[in-house]
C-alpha cells in the first residue's frame, strides 16, 4: 500500500508508518503507553493498530517485552514494519480478542493496555472508511475487551485503558467486575473544560478502594487561539521527551 504517511512520535524518536486515510494514531495511545510503570517486564497491547502505544512504551522502557494483538491485517503488517524499522522488540499477533489466538491463549503478562473503540454503533454513525470504522466503531462489546485483558494479565498484574468519558459508567462497572483496586485519571482538555477522556486502571485480584485522581490538564490556554503548540508541561514531556505519566 502506497498511500501511507511516515509520522513522528516522541519528538521524532519514533517514526511510524500509518494509512493516510482511515484510523490514524494520535496522542491517545502515546498517553496510554506513558502510564505503564517502568517495572513492568511484559506488556500486551490489545488492538495495537500500527503499534503506536507498544512502540512508544518499548522506546521508553529498555528491556521491556511488548506484544501486540491486532484484528486488521493491514494494521498488523504496518505494526510489524514499524517494529522492524525502529529496531524495537515488538511481537505482533494478528487475530481477534474474542477468539484469542493460540499464540496468546496460554500466556500472561505483567500489564495489559488497550485503546478500545470509543463509539457504540447503536448510538452513533459509522465511519465511511472501513478500516477507521473497525478501529473507532465498537464491533466487540467493551465487556469483551475488559474480559480478554483480565484473562491475559497475571495475578496482581494491572490493566489500563483509555476511553471517552461517555463510556465511563460502563467501563468502571466492568473493571469492578473483572478486576479490582480501580483507579481513574481524568484527562482535561483545557482549564475549566469538561473532561472528555479518561484513563482507567485495575489490578487483578486487587481489593483496594476506588481512587479518583486529580485530572491532568492537556493544554494550558483556556481556548485554542493560535497555531502554536500549547500543551501543558506534563503532557509536552510525554509527547516530546518520552517521559512517563504515572498515576499519582
Give structural notes:
The protein is of the alpha/beta class. The chain has one domain (4-241): 3-Layer(aba) Sandwich (Rossmann fold), CATH 3.40.50. Helix content is 29%, strand content 25%. The protein has helices at 27-34, 52-60, 73-86, 102-105, 130-136, 142-152, 168-178, 233-241, and strands spanning 4-9, 14-19, 42-46, 65-70, 90-94, 109-114, 153-164, 183-188, 197-203, 211-212, 216-217. Strands 3, 4, 5, 6, 7, 8, 9, 10 and 11 form a nine-stranded mixed β-sheet that branches. A two-stranded antiparallel sheet has the order 1-2. A hairpin with a 4-residue loop joins β1 and β2.
What are the main properties of this structure?
248 residues; alpha/beta; Rossmann fold; 9-stranded mixed β-sheet; 8 helices; 25% strand; globular
Tell me the number of strands.
11
CATH class: Alpha Beta
DSSP helical segment count: 8
Classification by helices and strands = alpha/beta
Arithmetic mean of pLDDT: 91
Percentage of β-strand residues: 25-35%
Overall outline: globular
What is the terminal separation in angstroms? 43 Å
User: CATH superfamily assignment?
Assistant: Vaccinia Virus protein VP39
CATH architecture: 3-Layer(aba) Sandwich
Helix content: 25-40%
Provide the low-confidence segments as ranges.
none
At the fold tier of CATH, the topology name is Rossmann fold
Overall domain count: 1
Main pleated-sheet profile: 9 strands, mixed
Question: What Rg do the Cα atoms give?
Answer: 17 Å
What is the element string, with H for helices and E for strands? EEHEHEHEHEHHEHEEEEH
GO biological process, one term: methylation
Domain Methyltransferase small: 31-122
GO molecular function, one term: N-methyltransferase activity
Protein name: tRNA1(Val) A37 N6-methylase TrmN6
Amino acid at each position: 500500500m502506497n498511500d501511507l504517511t511516515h509520522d513522528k512520535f516522541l519528538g521524532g524518536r519514533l517514526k511510524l508508518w500509518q494509512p493516510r486515510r482511515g484510523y490514524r494514531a494520535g496522542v491517545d495511545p502515546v498517553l496510554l503507553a506513558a502510564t505503564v510503570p517502568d517495572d513492568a517486564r511484559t506488556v500486551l497491547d490489545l488492538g495495537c493498530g500500527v503499534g503506536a502505544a507498544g512502540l512508544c512504551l518499548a522506546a521508553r522502557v529498555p528491556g521491556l517485552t511488548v506484544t501486540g494483538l491486532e484484528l486488521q491485517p493491514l494494521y498488523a503488517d504496518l505494526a510489524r514494519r514499524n517494529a522492524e524499522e525502529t529496531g524495537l522488540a515488538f511481537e505482533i499477533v494478528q487475530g481477534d480478542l474474542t477468539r484469542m489466538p493460540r499464540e496468546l491463549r496460554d500466556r500472561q503478562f505483567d500489564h495489559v493496555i488497550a485503546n478500545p473503540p470509543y463509539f457504540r454503533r447503536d448510538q452513533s454513525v459509522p465511519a465511511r472508511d472501513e478500516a477507521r470504522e473497525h478501529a473507532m466503531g465498537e464491533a466487540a462489546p467493551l465487556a469483551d475487551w475488559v474480559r480478554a485483558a483480565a484473562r491475559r494479565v497475571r495475578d496482581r498484574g494491572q490493566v489500563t485503558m483509555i476511553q471517552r468519558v461517555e463510556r465511563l459508567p460502563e467501563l468502571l462497572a466492568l473493571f469492578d467486575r473483572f478486576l479490582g483496586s480501580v483507579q481513574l485519571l481524568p484527562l482535561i482538555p483545557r482549564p475549566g473544560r469538561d473532561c472528555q477522556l479518561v484513563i482507567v486502571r485495575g489490578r487483578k485480584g486487587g481489593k483496594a478502594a476506588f481512587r479518583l485522581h486529580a485530572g491532568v490538564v492537556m493544554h494550558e490556554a483556556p481556548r485554542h487561539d493560535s497555531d502554536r503548540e500549547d500543551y501543558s508541561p506534563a503532557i509536552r514531556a510525554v509527547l516530546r521527551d518520552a517521559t512517563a505519566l504515572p498515576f499519582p
